[in-house]
Structures are given as structure tokens and as C-alpha cells.
Design a protein that fits this description.
alpha+beta, rod-shaped
Length: about 180
């Protein structure tokens, strides 16, 4: 009976001393962590790039509108111009909502909109309320643009920690205040 256990014991000891497969165990433990970290960094980079392009487009359109006849712009014209300047957001025309209102009602009372932006709910795209009143000469105007963007990796890292709307997108908001120049 001792002779039968002896080769089995030797084989077990040799197996425990062997170092083959150590890299596989380390890889199996660390690879998911590195992938989540990589996807989070990539998602953050895409989010920041989309936001910078979106905010830049709003600034360019507001600058043009401020220096030309601002009262001639409609909601759809401004949305189309912003979407033309925003190159990296694919569904811009469907998901961009603009809100514009006058803030200098008189010399002493300035009324800014509340903190809640009107954004498109991807479940019901027509539900967003558009308060858009173009300004006239020498009026101070406030423009808020909101667009809903879908994360590239919604279940991983940053995409999982963002606050989504009903359909899983997140809202990006760009704001601008300007005075309409006299013609």
C-alpha cells in the first residue's frame, strides 16, 4: 500500500513545486481590472472630446449670432448650425434642444432659467419643451443647449457610473450669455 501512495505523493509534490501557469493565474486576475480601467479612460476621453466639440460649436454659433442680426435666427436654424459645427456627435439633429430667453427684463431684475435643462428623452423625442425667444438689439440673452449622448461602453466603468436618462443616454449641457449688438 505504501508503494501505491508514494508515486501519487511524489506527483502531487512535483505539481505544487512547478511554476508553469503562474502567468496565467496573474493574467486571469489582472486582465479584467486593466480592461475596465482602459474602457473607463477611453469613455472619459470620448466624453470630453464630444463635450469640447459641442461647447465649441455653441460658442461659434453664438458669436456669429451676436455680431449679426440675432433676431433673425430661429430654433431650427441655430440647431442646424450647431450640428454642422459639432462633428463628432452623430444624432445631433434629433437630440439637440435649445433654450433661449431674455435675462435683463429691467435694470434691477434679472431672471435666469432654473438649473433643470430641457433635454430630449430618447423614449419620447417630442416631449422636450423648447423655450426659444430670439433677442432684439441691446438685450442680454441666455442660451442653453442640451444634447443627449449614448455612452460607448454603457455597462463598464464610467459608462456604468454616469446618471442616465430613461433610455441610457447622458445629457451634455452648454451655456452662453451674450448681449445682442446694435446694428
Amino acid at each position: 500500500m505504501m508503494r501505491l501512495l508514494s508515486p501519487l505523493t511524489r506527483l502531487t509534490r512535483a505539481f505544487r513545486r512547478g511554476e508553469e501557469g503562474n502567468a496565467t493565474a496573474e493574467f486571469a486576475i489582472l486582465f479584467p481590472l486593466f480592461m475596465v480601467m482602459f474602457l473607463t479612460i477611453f469613455e472619459m476621453a470620448m466624453l470630453m472630446t464630444r463635450y469640447m466639440m459641442f461647447e465649441r460649436a455653441v460658442d461659434i454659433v453664438v458669436r456669429d449670432m451676436r455680431l449679426t442680426s440675432a433676431g433673425n435666427y430661429s430654433h431650427d436654424e441655430m440647431r442646424n448650425r450647431i450640428c454642422e459645427e459639432t462633428l463628432i456627435i452623430s444624432a445631433c439633429y434629433d437630440e439637440l434642444v435649445l433654450e433661449m430667453r431674455r435675462v435683463d427684463e429691467d435694470e434691477e431684475n434679472w431672471s435666469f432659467p432654473g438649473p433643470q435643462a430641457n433635454c430630449v428623452d430618447l423614449d419620447d423625442p417630442g416631449a422636450a419643451v423648447k423655450d426659444f425667444t430670439p433677442g432684439q438689439q441691446n438685450q442680454t440673452m441666455y442660451l442653453r443647449a442640451c444634447i443627449t449622448v449614448t455612452p460607448m461602453f454603457p455597462g463598464t466603468g464610467l459608462g456604468a457610473s454616469l446618471v442616465p436618462d430613461g433610455e441610457g443616454g447622458y445629457n451634455m449641457i452648454a451655456q452662453s450669455a451674450y448681449s445682442v449688438e446694435p446694428i
